[in-house]
Amino acid sequence: MSFLSDTIARIQPSPTIAVTTLAGELKAAGRDVIGLGAGEPDFDTPQNIKDAGVRAIAEGKTKYTAPDGIIELKQAICAKLKRDNGLDYVPSQVSVSGGGKQVLFNALVATLNEGDEVVIPAPYWVSYPDMVLLAGGTPVVAEASVQTNYKLTADQLEAAITDKTKWLIFNSPSNPTGAGYSWEELKALTDVLMRHPHVWVMTDDMYEHLAYDDFEFCTPAQVEPRLYDRTLTVNGVSKAYAMTGWRIGYAAGPEHLIKGMRKVQSQSTSNPCTISQWAAVEALNGTQDFIAENNVIFKRRRDLVVEMLNGAEGVSCPVPEGAFYVYPSVAGCIGKTSPAGVLIENDEVFATALLEETGVAVVFGAAFGLSPNFRVSYATSDENLKEACSRIQKFCAALT
Hints:
Blueprint: H1 6-9, H2 15-28, E1 34-35, H3 47-58, H4 71-85, E2 94-97, H5 100-111, E3 117-122, H6 127-134, E4 138-143, H7 154-160, E5 165-171, H8 183-194, E6 200-204, H9 220-223, E7 231-236, E8 249-252, H10 255-266, H11 274-285, H12 289-310, E9 325-326, H13 347-358, E10 360-361, E11 363-364, E12 374-377, H14 382-397
Parallel strand pairs: 1-10, 3-4, 3-5, 5-6, 6-7
Antiparallel strand pairs: 2-8, 7-8, 9-12, 11-12
Helix pairs in contact: 3-11, 4-11, 5-6, 5-10, 7-8, 12-14
């Protein structure tokens, strides 16, 4: 009999973290590796935000806080949700955690019972299904397709909902595809949810501010106000504010749900880092000008990567609306053999051979629930992206 629980046996380590770790280990061993696996901006945290963290230390703001955040940060979150999304919340409806992942986990633990189902559109962020399993629920994967630019349709959502469905987890712009739902596309989904009043929506808006061209972000409770009482709007400061290591995520929703999440957090980690909370207050209340400046760089990188990957034999890469990922298909490479003699049976083999033979680290599509694909994070320098995509082109051209 295993000492470890049956629950832990149901889940797997995060593949994205595994790829990033392996790339780091290979680099440390002297290999020429370009890592395109990490979902982390290469920009530094803006100076005003860093200064706020330093100021908190100097002023002695280093003690425990309330389990789910200081009132000043909750007020800043309420102001942000009103300013950017037209949503009205009060601090008692807000929870702050050590990153967006903990927010999602708290909500699932606080609400799921055995047999409860959670609809997860695929491709999905790798942690969604495992967090549902850890919380005792059953993930129900609803596959989108490249024909809809990896966005779930109303008919697909309708087909996935049963009388056991408790949540829909919704992410736009998406990790891993970068696909963003327009107002009309999201309205079609919220219309389905209005026909199923027992289904709540957990909306992961982490990439809200990373939007390009004429794409305009919107969130479910904004599109359909009647969903307000069964929506948990999740966001954080990690991506747009280049604050990944500061570990601050937050959510706003019905007060009884927030109380349940607070109870979970009070018995696990308690409060998120106090210093990071004060830095997040400055992030949300301070200047936002750098976001548009960074987006110009991200858009240039997106266009570079999409063009070069579409120039790789057997690869097809849609143009995403946001985030800093692309999700190309490698359907044209499956069944071929690499220069080192590896038969490319699936996207995991493709990614492994690509790393071993060219030193380019990507995350295989099966980790995100839809194959044959791989994810590229273009949150790195133009030079790295050009070299990495050139290696991918050469690798694909050499497949026989």
